[in-house]
Structure to design on (434 residues):
């Protein structure tokens, strides 16, 4: 699989993990410490993938 | 936010959804990932071996074997839904005779029987307020049909949990009667398998029909399962005359899309969640106990043994009489509090489901209903 494609899917899947957290904490999304950590990890991984993609397409 | 002309659906993310039709079909993150990946038409057929149920990449064949074991049955096929599974059995069995069904059956059971040209007889429920089906009435039903037509019915159908009251019928008792009379037994588990443990062999079922999008955390379209006992393959899974790998009753290949992959992706989670069914029942019982503190009465069997709850709610009906939003007030007040899934305009009788909610969410739902009712 092309790296750009793999990273794109990886981000789409990370969004689904994030969506899962909003589902479990609806309607107020008051996150406990564990959930906060999960959200921040997901966002970090998305950012990392975005950076890799930006770098790849900018070359 | 819109998707072209379509409104974005964020009910599961932004609200607590109580719609009984939807709570058990709420997808897992893995199901949604599978759907994203297999969203294109016929993408499930990349490595087709001639029929969907024998495909091994993705491993549909292996999955169906696991599902049969999970249901305590011998073989299984994917169907386009539970109703298609029921119709497949009825069509395969029917010679134009009769079928005995429970009086709480879903409309799709009735139209399936009609389409299969089976004359429908019903075991009535015991009426208000519990609307229960007595398993022993199946024996009486068989005898009445024999008296009227000269033959026992060709099939018996039981709705394990009905979609109106959420009553659970003792399927094992019905299975025993069917086996004593040698009447094939079809169990509709649309509201049970995938939520609670089902053992078809212990029950004595010949056929089990399941709904993936109602109770197995699957989405991305319709998906069902038809599981059968050994001895019925030749009749019910019979292949086409010139198409030896294509079962007639599912028109060769049934659900040819992402919904089957969603079912497969959610299956590990479903196997785990049936273990916590008792907790789901406790949540439903808790909510009923709280709501009955005001002028609300739960209909159907008591105590509740299922998450689907039918309520008679004079308290909200009385408020609606003088409220400027009339019968719509309850829907909008709940929506303002982040709760959805009620039919707009209903205040006298309605159905809700607590399935899959956390205890915190159930407590909040109870608090909101009581607050709106002035309790």
């Amino acid at each position: 699989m092309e790296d750009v494609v793999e990273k794109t899917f990886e981000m789409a899947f990370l969004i689904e993990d994030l969506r899962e957290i909003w589902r479990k904490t609806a309607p107020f999304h008051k996150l406990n410490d564990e959930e906060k950590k999960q959200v921040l990890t997901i966002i970090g991984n998305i950012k990392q993938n975005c950076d890799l993609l930006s770098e790849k397409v900018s070359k | 936010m819109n998707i072209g002309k379509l409104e974005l659906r964020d009910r599961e993310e932004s609200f607590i959804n109580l719609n009984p039709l939807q709570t058990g079909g709420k997808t897992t993150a893995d199901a949604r990932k599978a759907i994203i990946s297999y969203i294109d038409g016929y993408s499930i057929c990349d490595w087709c071996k001639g029929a969907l149920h024998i495909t091994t990449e993705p491993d549909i064949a292996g999955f169906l074997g696991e599902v049969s074991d999970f249901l305590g049955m011998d073989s299984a096929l994917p169907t386009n839904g539970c109703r298609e599974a029921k119709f497949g059995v009825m069509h395969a069995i029917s010679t134009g005779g009769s079928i005995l069904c429970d009086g709480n059956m879903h409309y799709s059971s009735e139209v399936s029987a009609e389409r299969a040209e089976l004359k429908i007889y019903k075991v009535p429920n015991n009426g208000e307020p519990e609307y229960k089906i007595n398993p022993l009435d199946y024996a009486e039903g068989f005898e009445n049909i024999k008296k009227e037509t000269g033959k026992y019915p060709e099939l018996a159908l039981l709705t394990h949990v009905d979609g109106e009251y959420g009553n659970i019928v003792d399927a094992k008792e019905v299975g025993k009667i069917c086996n004593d009379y040698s009447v094939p037994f079809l169990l509709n588990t649309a509201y049970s398998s995938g939520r609670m443990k089902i053992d078809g062999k212990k029950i004595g079922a010949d056929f089990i029909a399941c709904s993936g999008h109602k109770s197995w955390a699957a989405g991305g379209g319709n998906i069902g399962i038809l599981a059968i006992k050994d001895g019925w393959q030749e009749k019910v899974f019979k292949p086409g005359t010139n198409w030896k790998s294509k079962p007639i009753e599912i028109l060769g290949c049934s659900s040819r899309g992402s919904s089957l992959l969603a079912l497969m992706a959610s299956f590990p989670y479903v196997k785990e969640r049936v273990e916590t069914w008792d907790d789901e029942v406790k949540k439903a019982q808790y909510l009923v106990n709280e709501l009955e503190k005001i002028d609300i009465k739960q209909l159907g069997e008591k105590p509740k043994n299922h998450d689907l709850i039918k309520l008679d709610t004079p308290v909200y009906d009385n408020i609606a009489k003088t409220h400027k939003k009339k019968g719509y007030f309850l829907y909008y007040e709940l929506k303002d509090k982040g709760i959805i899934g009620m039919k707009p305009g209903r205040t006298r009788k309605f159905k809700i489901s607590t399935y899959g909610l956390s205890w915190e969410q159930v407590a909040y739902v109870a608090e909101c209903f009581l607050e709106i009712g002035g309790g």
Q: What stands out?
A: Residues 29-273 of chain B form a domain with the Aspartate Aminotransferase; domain 2 fold (CATH 3.40.640.10). The radius of gyration of chain B is 22 Å.
